[in-house]
Structures are given as C-alpha cells and as structure tokens.
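User: Structure please.
Assistant: Input sequence and predicted structure:
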Amino acid sequence: MEERRVRVGDSSYLLATDGAGPPLLLLHGFPQTHRCWRKILPRLAGSFTVVAPDLRGYGDTVAPPGGPRGEGYSKREMAAELLGLMKQLGFERFAVVGHDRGGRVAYRMALDHPTQVERLVVLNVVPTVEQFERMTPETALRYLPWFLLAQPAPVPERLLGTSAKFYVRHVLEEWCGTPGAIPPKDASVYARAFTPATIERVCADYRAAFHLDRPLDAADRAAGRKIQCPTLVLWGAREDAMADSPLAVWRRWAADVRGRGLASGHFLPEEAPEAVASALLEFLK
C-alpha cells in the first residue's frame, strides 16, 4: 500500500491506495481507521484501484471540529467530501464498501449521488433511522456509543478523554466475535488514534447521527427514495445486534439487494477477511 495525503475543502485526508483497475472506495467504522482493511486490500488490489481513507476526523485525517448538533459530520456532508476526494484522484464513478460508520456514509452517498456510485456494499449496518427504531430495552445497552457520544459537549469528550485507550480496547474485545482476530498490536494502533482532537470529531459524528442523519433518513423513507445501484449487504452472524437478517430492512431502501450473514462478530473485515474478500470480488466483478 501507498499512503498519501489529499486535501479536500477544510480536511486533510490520510489514505492508502493500491492496485489497478476500476476504482473502489473502502470506508472503515468506529473505533478504527483504514488499517481495518489490511487483510482484504491485497486481494482486492489485484482487480481494482483501491482507495482506503481515514474518515473525516478519524485516525490521521485532520478536519475541523463539528457544530453543536454535529454539523460538518452528517453523513451527507461526509459523503460529499469523499466524492471530492475521489474526483481529485481522477475517479468520477466508482464502487463503495462501508463498514459500520463508513457504511452509513456509503449508503448516503449512493442515495444522494446515484450517477456516481456504481455499486454499494454495506457491512453490519441498517439505515440510521431504522437502527434507532429497532432498539428495545433488551438491546439498548449494546448501543452505548449512540447515546453517550451524542450528548452535548463537552460531557462525552471529557468522559472518553479520561480513559480513551481503555474504552477503545473494551469495544474491540466486546464486539469481536472471533478471539484473536484483532491482535494487541492492531488494537494499540486504534487506541492511540483516539487523541483529544479525534475524540471531539468522533462525538460530532455521533451527534450528527442523532440530530441530522436520523431525520434525513426518515424524510427519504417517507418520500419513497431508494438506492438504485446493486447493493450487497453482509453482516456478522455472531453479533447479537444482527441476529435478525437485515435484508428485509434493506429491501425497503434499495431496488436491487442481496446478501448473507458470515461467521463473524461485528468486525467483519478482520474477523472474516477471506469470506468478505470473496463476496466483494464476486459481487463487484
């Protein structure tokens, strides 16, 4: 992989690139960076020009802090900025794969920019408004970041800042359904990335999900808007939150949907890299 920096608007993106062929954008989730694709990217690079950035405000991508409700970090804004990134790299149309938070950016990109997203893959997510509505007293405790990190500043920033490394390691251990899939070396890299500045931006991402992304999704659903490109949905069958197949949900949101569960917990790219890579190559080709 080659790592490089690309400035788009008020953000300076760190991204990894590799391979040759049609362009493919990979978007990571919480609490990770583009490093989560390390086991998959070499296989994809044989068929695609792969671009794997750190999301706006995550890892080593530098961006301004968000507004009180997460302004600047809505998935619509994040998606539009990534379109600018791909355009600077010379790609007008491309496929996009997103895991967790990156999956939310990816499906918003497909909804808002149907002529530029050729194919969509989402890992371990359903649309944000649907996720909020699916929460029950039995499942709500599993979604602590959704509510803790969306609290008004500076409460979550200070709480997380006092023990960021502990919390990141806790999430990696608790959400992972495959022991040893994320070794201590990689967990340490993710934990070190949670600097005070990054914590502020991550909280903005979660505030935006509650205040901005949720009502935007609801408006699109009410208007009957659908993702038009072929869509692949993959999820970890070992994750309690994904115990029910999300395909029924996604078929309300996309015109052409297929997918399946894999033997994995939440962190599909690291827990089931071979299965994910094979599924991506089959679908994207």
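The radius of gyration is 17 Å.
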